[in-house]
Design a protein that fits this description.
Layout: H1 4-13, E1 19-22, H2 27-36, H3 43-54, E2 63-68, H4 70-73, H5 83-89, E3 93-97, E4 102-104, E5 112-114, H6 120-129, E6 134-141, H7 150-170, E7 173-180, H8 188-208, E8 217-218, H9 235-249, E9 256-259, H10 266-278, E10 286-291, H11 293-303, H12 310-328, H13 334-337
Parallel strand pairs: 1-2, 1-10, 2-3, 3-6, 6-7, 7-8, 8-9, 9-10
Antiparallel strand pairs: 4-5
Helix pairs in contact: 6-7, 7-8, 8-9, 9-10, 10-11, 10-12, 11-12
The chain binds 1,3-dihydroxyacetonephosphate (13P).
């Protein structure tokens, strides 16, 4: 069913020193991010913003792939070159978000299930024709009183596996993203337990649905206390707990784990990844990043929707890409963060 090219693409996405830029915010999500900075969200503003990121000189040293949104994969740079081509020319692999968002799960108040399976085979074929070589689907798991339910875990794992099987059939590498949210006052131990059971149910569903583990990437949350938990964790604790959790639940056949940032402060997301890559002991997969907010935050702010700030936005984006690239080698330092070599 799957071809060796998928393994090569997956490996290229987690090549040493590189990670993925998630630039696949849906129209409502990017509007929310823009609005927080007083930027109007028009199609042209979104195009100019994404063009700023994709044409930042030198990012191909740190960015292996970019996840696009349906609107973005069809947009073009000022010179008429389609965005997937803009990326491919720099050796960056274009990808595409294919889920249709997390919707309320019937019969489970407060929980969600991700939609988008209907017609997915046809959409994947179209995206492949537009230049995509990998895809992403995000499931959302909330921690709270009685949550997550086994029903919610099963429904989301089943959908993730159906998506992954269809991607591999279509010749696209699936990024499988079950996100346990940071919202709440739960402890790091609770996040560990929930993340472990979520990952186990996802890998059970992937096996049941005949998905080739060597030809996918996992995009999980890090193991963190809830944002309202009175006891926050040190960088070392987060790194240790996250890797220990992954070792219990993620088969060694998976080539790479590309974390989401999930609302962590930019520097924390980099420091956590760096600390994981400094750990000794068994680590069968590449540990990398697939950040949206933690790569884009300072860049979007520096740009602020103004043409005259493009260079400042690119500088901020390059800096975060470089810091996270260094974290892949466990070489992220305070000096590098402050902009010194
Ligand atoms: P964040 O890094 O902002 O969590 O986004 C990653 C992502 O792609 C969520 O689906």
């Amino acid at each position: 069913m799957t071809t060796p090219e998928l393994g090569l693409t997956a490996e290229a996405l987690v090549a040493p020193g590189k990670g993925i830029l998630a630039a696949d915010e849906s129209a409502p999500t990017i509007e929310k991010r823009f609005r927080a900075l007083g930027i109007e969200s028009t199609e042209e503003k979104r195009r100019v913003y994404r063009q700023m990121l994709f044409t930042t000189a030198g990012i191909e040293e740190f960015i292996s792939g970019v996840i696009l949104f349906d609107e973005t994969i069809r947009q073009k740079a000022d010179d008429g070159t389609a965005f997937p081509e803009v990326l491919s020319r720099q050796g960056i692999i274009p990808g595409i978000k294919v889920d249709k968002g997390a919707k309320p799960l019937a019969g489970a108040p407060g929980e969600k299930v991700t939609e988008g399976l209907d017609g997915l085979r046809e959409r994947l074929a179209e995206y492949k024709g537009l230049g995509a070589r990998f895809a992403k689907w995000r499931a959302v798991i909330t921690i709270g009183g009685g949550m997550p339910s086994a029903y919610c875990l099963d429904a989301n794992a089943h959908a993730l596996a159906r998506y992954a099987a269809l991607c591999q059939e279509a010749g696209l590498v699936p990024i499988v993203e079950p996100e346990v949210l940071m919202d709440g006052d739960h402890t790091i131990e609770r996040c560990f337990d929930v993340t472990e059971v979520v990952l186990q149910s996802v890998f059970r569903a992937l096996r049941d649905q005949r998905v080739t583990l060597e030809h996918l990437l996992l995009k999980p949350n890090m193991v963190l206390p809830g944002t309202d938990c009175p006891r926050q964790a040190s960088v070392a604790e987060v790194a240790e707990a996250t890797v220990r959790c992954l070792l219990r639940a993620v088969p060694a056949a998976v080539p790479g784990v590309v974390f989401l940032s999930g609302g962590q402060a930019e520097e924390d997301a980099t420091a956590h990844l760096n600390a994981m890559n400094t750990l000794t002991g068994p680590r069968p997969w590449q540990l990398s990043f697939s950040y949206a907010r933690a790569l884009q935050g300072p860049a979007m702010k520096a740009w602020g929707g103004e043409a005259r700030n493009i260079a400042a936005g690119q500088k901020a984006f390059y800096h975060r890409a470089r810091c996270n690239g260094a974290a892949r080698y466990a070489r992220y330092t305070p000096e590098l963060e402050r902009g010194r070599p």
